[in-house]
Amino acid sequence: MAQDDETVELTPGTPEFEKMVFKLNQEVNAENLAILNYDGNELQQIEEGVYAQPAYVADDFNLFFIVTQLIEDDWIVAFSQATIENESDITDLSEPIPTGKGLNMLGNQSPDDANKLLQYFNTLSDANRGEWRLLQ
User: Fold this and answer.
1) CB atoms closer than 10 angstroms to residue 128
2) What HEC string does the chain produce?
């Protein structure tokens, strides 16, 4: 039986899941930015075509959403880790982390928060706002 390459079900927490990214079905702009708000936070444009918002922040671990065109013209929701100084000044963001890998990293820190984030992505997917894709 041939398998459809577009729909891939992978289990969070597995090494294979680390290769998954969440692709948005439309570009991000001022009109649709609010649909991506998470947990009371909203995306902020940090440079042209790059948006960020906190996903999880604790003393010893943090994860920020990074929304940008990472793969050709596709808008991807990835993660980044930030350097936070003086408790609230974000001074540096890491290279983008694939969505699945970020969720696995968070799962090691806080499984409940990782599940909450996974539900957020599933809600976006159910609303036809985006879909999971396997990085090639």
Assistant:
1) 9
2) CCCCCCCCCCCCCCCHHHHEEEEECCCCCCCCHHHHCECCECCEEEECCEEEEEEEECCCCEEEEEEEEEECCEEEEEEECEEEECCCEEEEECCCECHHHHHHHHHHHCHHHHHHHHHHHHHHHHCCCEEEEECC
18-74 tens-digit pLDDT: 999 999 999 998 888 899 999 999 999 988 889 999 999 998 899 999 999 977 889
pLDDT in tens, 90-133: 778 899 999 999 999 999 999 999 999 999 999 999 999 999 99
Amino acid at 97: I
pTM of this structure = 0.87
Instruction: Give the Cα separation of 34 and 119 in Å (integer).
Output: 17
User: What single letter denotes the amino acid at residue 57?
Assistant: V
Distance CA 6, CA 109 (A): 30
What is the token pair recorded at 102?
């970020």
Each domain of the chain, given as residue ranges in start order, spans 21-130
